[in-house]
Amino acid sequence: MTVENKTIIISGASRGIGRATALLLAGHGANVVVTARNADELTQLEKEATEGHTRGKIVAVSGDVTSESDVATVVRTALDQFKRIDVVINNAGFGIFKNVEDISVSEWDDVMATNVKGTFLLTKAALPTLKAQGSGHIVVVASDVAKRTFAGGSLYTASKYAQEAFMGALRKEVRPFGIKVTGVYSGLVDSHFHNKPGAESSRNWLKNEDMAESMLFIVSRPAHVVIDEFMVHPLEQEY
């Protein structure tokens, strides 16, 4: 029940949930390979871990999860540095919230590319290693809207339902190889995903650190235990 010396890849790690998770896991002794498009923020994260003398190491690889070559570089870096991959946390994602007739084709493509294609590409790139090892854990940070819909959320919820379907089929494919798949379904989180993190209106929402603690719990279970689904909300959010 530890992440000590585990090699963990986290996408979308330059801020928010991904950043908090990287710092917490490294603090518990994991070696974390982080990726996102913002190279400066990743460098700062790497520096913070080094200066904070975390038990584990954070290695930054800037890139775009919608790029097959960028994703391949992330996986190759993890293997070059640490010789194995234990956990892949698909965290990269964003949302656009508009009525259907107001969504442009480019907006649709951008959200689907990051949220769905990005999850597919990073998972696909890591799978040969996980299968060869006979172990591994794929985590997808979806949303509680993978289970529900709302007006103005057609694009974002469609991307999350797609992640949900992807995980369901993937789970059946990889379980015989000793590979775990976990879907994380969070409610409202006070993060950069929303326009004004730290606002009074979001004071009682989940914090990035709450989600990081959830990730730590999920990926530190014994080898014979898999948490297939993990849903978490702030108490003030109706469920």
TrEMBL record:
A Pfam cross-reference name: adh_short
Protein's recorded name: NADP-dependent 3-hydroxy acid dehydrogenase YdfG
Species per Swiss-Prot/TrEMBL record: Spirosoma endophyticum
Family that this chain belongs to: Belongs to the short-chain dehydrogenases/reductases (SDR) family.
This protein's UniProt keywords: Oxidoreductase
CDD domains: SDR_c
Ketoreductase domain location: 6-185
UniProt-listed InterPro entries: KR_dom, NAD(P)-bd_dom_sf, SDR_fam
Cellular component GO terms held in the UniProt record: membrane
Segments crossing the lipid bilayer: none
